[in-house]
Design brief:
about 450 residues; alpha/beta; elongated; 15 helices
């Protein structure tokens, strides 16, 4: 009664318009297929994973699986020209195993990285009563049937569904369907449930609910939608937690905060100390540590490591905001803005690596809501914060094989001394509380995701 996930990645994705197969394009710190494999590898419902990949990429996938610890992957096989060829490659390989007829197989598109355990659960449960299961969602659009560019029919929308994956089967059932299909000289198929419907019409295909977020990345613009979905998913992880939950994750851990003398940095320190962390704070005013000075950052981290023997989390909240037009900025103000807001981020990240690599820890950086659109009178601040977002995404990819998480907090306007100094006193109800941002920061530090920009809103 083994349950096997078959990840289908045999195509190249001509509609994607990219030189790299779309399943290997990076998104939120990992390739798209890595996110998909991870979903099944993390599910307690899945015993084994078989990957069907375009011929020539098998070794690349094996290397990635080893680096990321995907221990459930048992086979990496070459796909064929058609989707059906890839499905058959998995069916034939698994059919060689003794007792495999009753295996539960879940065929899933590699480019649907948002499959979750709820969908997997529904598929597995339905296979207790049915031999074939499809995943679908209602259609919000009116679907028309066209003949010679003219509408010939408008089916009733309530009877229509949009198909997704996984598609789940008993191995003996899907194997029998393909055996029957092999006798048809005109056989073509774009999905496996269609093979059951056409060649084993007496076998009912049960339909379970999918989810709107379980999108298929088909076109290049889908990457932007997927990136936002990862951000929304990471925000959903920031749910209220008990004190015991935080103590389990922070007690006796070592946290280093650069820029911890006030504002968000100080609130992170207070919260982490409350949960038992060993916290070390560095700043210009507090310890004379200038993050634009590479040696100073290196020395600070080395001192902490000598005292504790480990560094689990590194946070940088240090920043400088000067509200002047570019024409009125002195040269030193320009250099300070660039060095503290961007070069300092680079220094902290570079020197944190060797310590976080030892603990498989987490790095947390900060951007600003101004990163999405430059702001007049603080152009250097907003543009450097845009650079931090890009930097976060790039470093998360570099460090993913080492299992170091790198994320970035994007807080809405927050009640901090730096904001008051630049914008004066504003109505409290229009600003975020720095304590709320601190808790979201702790949630992110102990989360499993990487390469994310975490929006924090009131």
């Amino acid at each position: 009664m083994k349950t096997v996930a078959v990840v289908l990645a045999g195509g190249f994705g001509e509609r994607f318009g990219h030189e790299t197969p779309k399943q290997l394009v990076k998104l939120a710190g990992l390739s798209i297929i890595d996110h998909t494999i991870k979903a099944f590898n993390d599910s307690p419902l899945i015993d084994e994973i078989v990957i069907i990949i375009k011929d020539g990429f098998q070794e690349k996938i094996r290397e990635s699986n080893n680096l990321l610890g995907f221990h459930k992957v048992s086979k990496v096989l070459a796909g064929g020209q058609e989707r059906s060829d890839s499905s058959l490659a998995a069916i034939n390989a698994l059919a060689q195993e003794q007792g495999s007829e009753d295996y539960k197989l879940l065929f899933h598109d590699a480019v649907r990285p948002f499959v979750d355990n709820n969908i997997i659960q529904r598929c597995v449960d339905a296979l207790t009563h049915f031999d074939a299961v499809d995943v679908a969602i209602p259609t919000a659009d009116t679907i028309i049937r066209v003949k010679d560019d003219v509408i010939s029919d408008i089916p009733t929308r309530s009877s229509l569904r949009r198909g997704q994956t996984p598609q789940a089967f008993r191995l003996k059932t899907i194997r029998s369907a393909y055996e029957a299909a092999s006798k048809d000289e005109n056989f073509t198929a774009t999905d496996d449930c269609g093979v059951i419907v056409k060649y084993l019409p007496d076998i009912p295909v049960y339909v379970v609910d999918g989810h709107e977020s379980n999108i298929k990345i088909t076109h290049e613009q889908d990457i932007f939608v997927a990136d936002k979905l990862f951000q929304l998913r990471s925000n959903n992880n920031a749910i209220p937690r008990s004190d015991n939950y935080y103590k389990q994750h922070f007690n006796n851990k070592t946290l280093v905060v650069f820029g911890g003398n006030q504002g968000i940095g100080l609130e992170i320190i207070n919260a982490a100390k409350n949960y038992g962390a060993n916290v070390f704070s560095f700043s210009r005013t507090q310890t004379g540590t200038n993050i634009e000075n590479s040696s100073a950052v290196s020395s600070a981290l080395e001192d902490v490591f000598q005292q504790t023997g480990q560094i689990d989390f590194v946070v940088n909240t240090a920043a400088i905001l000067i509200t002047k037009s570019l024409a009125n900025l002195a040269h030193k103000e320009i250099i300070d803005s660039i060095n503290i807001n961007y070069l300092g981020v680079i220094n902290v990240t570079k020197h944190a690596y060797e310590y976080l690599d030892k603990t498989k820890g987490s790095l947390l950086l900060f951007t600003s809501s101004s990163y999405t659109r430059g702001r007049a009178n603080y152009a250097l601040y907003s543009s450097s914060k845009a650079a931090v977002v890009n930097f976060t995404q790039a470093i998360s990819e570099e460090w993913a094989p080492q299992s170091i998480n790198v994320n970035c907090i994007n807080p809405e306007r927050t009640d901090t001394p730096m904001r008051v100094a630049n914008f004066g006193n504003e109505p409290k109800e229009t600003l975020l509380d720095a304590k709320q941002v601190a808790i979201n920061s702790l949630d992110t530090l102990i989360s499993k995701f990487t390469g994310q920009v975490i929006d924090v809103r009131r």
